[in-house]
TrEMBL record:
GO cellular-component term (any): photosystem II
Record-given protein name: Oxidoreductase
Entry's Gene Ontology BP terms: photosynthesis
Highest taxon of the lineage: Bacteria
Species annotation: Colwellia hornerae
InterPro entries in alphabetical order: DUF6242_C (IPR058667), WD40/YVTN_repeat-like_dom_sf (IPR015943)
DUF6242 domain boundaries: 46-270
């Protein structure tokens, strides 16, 4: 099913148009090509955000979803879990003398997860649960006083990577083959030298991601927006400059994502100039990094894709693409205005997008059949 929408043309194929779809078309501010991302099924309307405010108003920076199991994490050891697709949320925060902010989640199944805490020295930690968050085990703790964890990512239950701030002139990249119990730092000779005024941001749980066949990427910012890439399960890395705004210490790359075709994207901007207009997205195509015109509506800290549908978000607003990230438009509200309900972090699975941000705000944007 293909629906093509523009100011002068509307072609509807194999679908009965509902009044909700007509309303949705009216508020889309720019022309769109909407490719259905669900094979052999029908989408007859566009979704809207389902918002929830979690108690305690935590700043939420980590998110993960598998089927109907939704997890978010953030400040003050916060973890909240929903096992019914976001209808109800339970507080599964980590009770520990170590006070930290959980800025990344690796979710293996609806009961098994690792959360990553950030902070200097021993504040950077990994906790693991195997019972849906009812209990947590301290899995790994940083012992380097100069260390600071930024992100984690796993290919499977055992093999994964951890990224941390530079120590001794090189980013700390560690690898595990036993599910996070032990970690081995990648040799510095296999990592490009840290660039002056370069920085890494533990912003959204997407600073480090992994892909098929041992591929991995991490992004950095500061005055040198870059993407580091590996094709051998993190053993060796190369660095490429990317065309993102990078004129301040708080600018650069904030998040990474793969579309359905395993094409890599990087999003970013400037945390201190979140609503400003500047290059905030790039992708690797034709053997080089190229800027993507996503509207330049300010900082974007996370992106996620399901089929040909991709969302990108930052604190001030969100963007949507219906063709795997080629073209974008700002996500409008039903009144036809830019939706100002942005977020910090974003995850997705089976056509459901889970977002979370400031003040305990959680949003679900779902294309699932009802």
């Amino acid at each position: 099913m293909i629906i093509i929408m523009s100011s002068t043309l509307l072609i509807l194929a194999k679908v009965k148009v509902s009044t909700r779809l007509i309303s949705a078309i009216k508020y889309l501010s720019v022309a769109t090509v909407f490719y259905s991302a669900i094979a052999n099924s029908t989408i007859v309307d566009l979704p809207s955000w389902q918002h929830t405010a979690l108690p305690g108003s935590p700043s939420l920076r980590g998110s993960a979803v598998i089927d109907n199991s939704l997890w978010v994490s953030g400040s003050n050891n916060t973890v909240f879990v929903s096992q019914d697709g976001g209808k109800t949320w339970l507080d599964k925060s980590v009770d520990s003398s170590i006070k930290t902010g959980f800025r990344d989640i690796a979710l293996f199944d609806k009961h098994t997860a690792i959360v990553m805490g950030v902070g200097s020295g021993e504040q950077s930690v990994l906790y693991k649960t195997i019972d849906g968050g009812d209990s947590w085990q301290l899995l790994y703790q940083n012992q380097d006083k100069d260390g600071f964890f930024d992100s984690i990512a796993f290919w499977d239950n055992n093999n994964g990577l951890l990224m941390g701030d530079p120590v001794d002139g090189f980013y700390v990249i560690k690898k595990t083959s036993d599910g996070g119990k032990t970690w081995r730092r990648i040799e510095q000779t296999n990592i490009p030298t840290f660039v002056e005024k370069e920085a890494a941001f533990a912003a959204s749980g997407n600073t480090l991601i992994v892909g098929e066949q041992g591929k991995a990427w991490l992004t950095t910012g500061g005055f040198s927006a870059s993407v580091y890439s590996s094709i051998d399960f993190g053993e060796t890395w190369q660095r490429d400059t990317v065309p993102l705004f990078s004129k301040t210490q708080t600018a650069g790359g904030y998040g990474l994502a793969l579309n359905a075709h395993q094409q890599i994207f990087v999003v970013g901007g400037d945390y201190e100039q979140r609503p400003a207009s500047y290059p905030n997205m790039a992708t690797f195509t034709d053997n080089q990094w190229q800027s993507v015109n996503a509207g330049q509506y300010g900082l974007r800290s996370a992106m996620s894709c399901q089929g040909d549908i991709c969302l990108a978000t930052g604190k001030t607003s969100s963007d949507i693409s219906f063709n795997a990230g080629k073209t974008w438009q700002v996500l409008a509200n039903p009144q036809g205005k830019k939706d100002d309900k942005g977020f910090y972090t974003l995850a997705s699975d089976k056509m459901m997008f889970l977002a979370a941000g400031a003040d305990g705000k959680v949003g679900i944007y779902s294309f699932r059949q009802k």
